[in-house]
Design brief:
Layout (H helix, E strand, L loop, with lengths): L1 E6 L10 H15 L5 E7 L2 E6 L5 H8 L7 E8 L3 H11 L7 E8 L8 H16 L2 E2 L6 E8 L2 E5 L3 E2 L11 E5 L5 H11 L3 E8 L7 H17 L2 E7 L1 H10 L5 H20 L4 E2 L12 H9 L5 E2 L7 H11 L2 H4 L21 H8 L4 H10 L2 E5 L5 E3 L3 H4 L1
Parallel strand pairs: 5-6, 5-7, 10-11, 10-13, 11-12, 13-14
Antiparallel strand pairs: 1-3, 1-4, 2-3, 4-8, 4-9, 7-8, 12-15, 15-16
Length: about 400
């Protein structure tokens, strides 16, 4: 029987909580493989097995499984009875049309009551393959590796291990709100939290109608890409133009960017409370721009009551770009747009502010009114499996 064997690493270290992690991974695998010919998902000893229909497309399924956080690696495998002669017979059938000059066998015996040890299985199956194929054994650089796994009541063999993203299954670590710009950094920060088992709710601040709506389109496209890793997503589109305009009138120019950032944090927290989220995620990288000096990051964080998580804080730009290319967001992130970061931004930004200075500057503002103004115009987009946008009401209308 054709199947897929899913393996995990970090989950295996979770002790008494391991079953919860495994079953969450199993549920996510079912979601990821929806419509791709998987008939059943079954938890085995240290593995998860996906049974495949006859018409299942391995290339499409392989692509989907490569994006499931929690998966260390996986293989297209063949299940047989726990009988070495039957296993050898099936291996011969699968290798009939395969060309190889050298090979090796790598057996793993999770079921210790099986009468042969792993090296004994290697030798017996290897001798059998050598006899019918006439290929030579090469333990270091073989053209073909035959992997064998012995479990209670069943055995598997396969020829390749495909890498997964690793990490933890989405949803096991709670929910966070990701502040999503249209740039390179914030999608990578969100991905890193998804990979650590968080479900990310996205918040994008835009300046429409002061600027055009290209940043909103980019944000939707970026969330659709990231949705491949968490299967359903929610994107809040927050109009920040008018609150920014009022800040620009009342606050001295050097302080405005920090005040804008603090306002975004407060609005993000209001949405986090609505969503039951436990933290905010930003794409800050220490020293990258004026608002990301250690002093300014400290002042911005002071406005938060929830944890402010910065997964990229110690990464440089090239590292972030490399990860953006790997997850597929980079080409969208570099499309030119008009986002709220370009609106009412002064030429000279204070790189070293203090809480006292910014608190004094904010006294000229009605912060609660600005937050309410932004939330009043906020729209929610729900993105389901496959990227379909399920709805886009105003948040105030859907409350």
């Amino acid at each position: 029987m054709r199947c897929v064997l899913i393996r995990y690493h970090e989950i295996a270290l979770k002790g008494k909580n391991r079953p919860a992690f495994i079953h969450k991974l199993k549920d996510n695998l079912i979601l990821a493989a929806q419509g791709l010919g998987v008939s059943k998902a079954e938890v085995l000893m240290g593995r998860i097995m996906l049974s495949l229909d006859e018409n299942a497309s391995w290339p499409r399924l392989k692509e989907a499984l490569s994006r499931v956080p929690g998966v260390a690696n996986y293989s297209l495998a063949f299940k047989t009875d726990l009988n070495l002669e039957e296993l050898k017979r099936q291996v011969k059938i699968k290798l009939t049309d395969v060309k190889f000059d050298s090979f090796r066998v790598r057996a793993s015996r999770a079921y210790k009551d099986f009468p042969l040890t792993s090296p004994e299985i290697d030798r017996e199956v290897g001798a059998f393959i050598k006899e019918f194929s006439k290929a030579r054994v090469d333990l270091k650089k073989a053209d073909l590796t035959v992997f064998i796994e012995i479990l209670p009541k069943m055995a598997f063999f396969y020829f390749q291990k495909e890498p997964g993203p690793g990490g933890l299954p989405v949803g096991i670590s709670g929910k966070v709100v990701g502040l999503m710009s249209g740039g390179i950094d914030s999608p990578v920060a969100a991905y890193r939290m998804i990979k650590r088992g968080c479900r990310v709710v996205f918040v994008h601040f835009h300046a429409y109608p002061f600027l055009d709506n290209t940043s909103q389109k980019k944000a939707r496209e970026l969330v659709e890409i990231l949705n491949r890793y968490q299967y359903s997503s929610r994107l809040y589109l927050v109009p920040l133009g008018e609150p920014q305009r009022q800040v620009s009138v009342q606050v001295r120019a050097p302080y405005r960017v920090v005040v804008y950032r603090r306002l975004m944090v407060r609005i993000g927290e209001a949405i986090a409370r609505r969503e039951g989220a436990q933290g905010l995620v930003t794409g800050d990288s220490l020293g990258q721009v004026a608002s990301q000096t250690l002093e300014n990051l400290t002042v911005i964080e002071e406005a938060a009551s929830l944890p402010l998580i910065r997964p990229l804080i110690g990464m440089d730009k090239q590292e972030i770009i490399g990860e953006a290319q790997m997850i597929g967001t980079y080409s969208t992130s570099i499309i030119p747009d008009q986002d709220c970061c370009q609106l009412f931004v002064p030429k000279n930004v204070a790189t070293y502010t203090s809480v006292e200075e910014i608190t004094e500057a904010e006294k000229a503002l009605d912060i609660d009114k600005l937050i309410a103004m932004a939330l009043e115009g906020t729209k929610l987009v729900r993105i389901g499996p496959g990227g379909e946008r399920l709805s886009s009401p105003r948040v105030a209308e859907s409350s």
